[in-house]
Design a protein that fits this description.
The protein is an alpha+beta fold and 272 residues long. It has helices spanning 158-172, 179-192, 196-204, 207-212, 217-231, 241-250, 254-261, 265-268, and strands at residues 20-21, 36-42, 46-53, 56-58, 71-75, 79-85, 89-95, 113-117, 120-121, 127-128. It is 30% helix and 18% strand. A hairpin with a 5-residue loop joins strand 9 and strand 10. It is globular, with a radius of gyration of 20 Å.
Length: 272
């Protein structure tokens, strides 16, 4: 599902520009962009949709579209970073190729803000628009075809290597790197000439990635139980099975279950 973003796609911060705010989104069936992203109401790119061009961002998806996106189509050289919460907060995923069903990522009907760029990222791992015309290839500062080993050390400085590690963690694990992981992969990039793709592959082989992508009914029931205890202050009842199914099918998190419980009559009628 994920298209590899080569080392040549990483830019120095001095060349990055800031994404401009997107205009209000409107569901419809309009023209698609040459380079940009379209967000669809249904899986498999079905139903109504709205599109946004490369170089735009939406810190808050409009009320009519919020938490209603089920598939995403990417056009041209665009890439989008989607967030579960407004203002580019919460769990995030970087999407650089079309996704026909967001349930597999746990983001179905869970997108509240997004940024659209061109497969280049800033220091926080967010997609940003194209900047200046930084040269690529054998004469450029980020030579994707440079050999590994001692000659590769000149390809990366400390800041660039750290940016690649943070970006890879966000892409694969959806979080910031821990200090030990940051040091380990930063060293592999600088000292061993590892590419961004190698870092991502190593993270996909980690126990954490396997744990994130292996959901059992027992784990789902534990997630729902914690949400019930934290919000309603009681053990889940038979009606909780619906939430268990959402965790298994749509990869809902404990936060998702808790948010739905706070909408219930039981929670609203509880005395302070």
């Amino acid at each position: 599902m994920w298209r590899s973003i080569t080392v040549a796609s990483v830019l120095a911060a001095a060349f990055l520009t800031t994404a401009v705010p997107a205009q209000a989104q409107r569901w419809g069936r309009g023209a698609t962009p040459r380079s940009g992203v379209c967000f669809y109401e249904d899986i498999n790119f079905g139903g109504r949709y709205f599109c946004t061009a490369e170089g735009t961002s939406a810190p808050s998806v409009s009320r009519t579209d919020n938490d209603q996106i089920s598939s995403i189509r990417v056009f041209g050289n665009a890439v989008t970073t989607v967030y579960r919460d407004p203002d580019f907060r919460g769990q995030s995923r970087v999407i650089d190729s079309s996704v026909s069903d967001l349930r597999a990522m746990g983001f179905n009907d869970r997108i509240s803000s997004y940024e659209v760029g061109s497969a280049r990222f800033n220091n926080n791992g967010r997609a940003v628009p194209r900047g200046s015309n930084v040269p690529y290839g054998s004469n450029g500062p980020y030579r994707s075809n440079a050999p590994y080993g001692s000659n590769a050390q000149s390809r990366w400085n400390y800041r660039d290597a750290e940016r690649v590690v943070r970006q890879s963690y966000h892409q694969v694990l959806g979080r910031d790197p821990d200090p030990s992981g940051l040091r380990q992969y930063r060293s592999l990039i600088i000292d061993k000439g590892w590419s961004e793709q190698q870092v991502r592959e190593a993270l996909r082989n980690s126990p954490e990635f396997r744990e994130l992508n292996t959901m059992t009914r027992e784990k789902a029931e534990a997630i729902v139980r914690r949400a019930y205890l934290s919000v309603l202050r009681r053990e889940p009842d038979a009606g909780a099975q619906g939430f268990v199914n959402r965790v298994l099918r749509d990869r809902w998190s404990e936060e998702d279950v808790a948010r739905e419980l706070r909408k219930s009559d039981e929670y609203r009628n509880k005395k302070p």
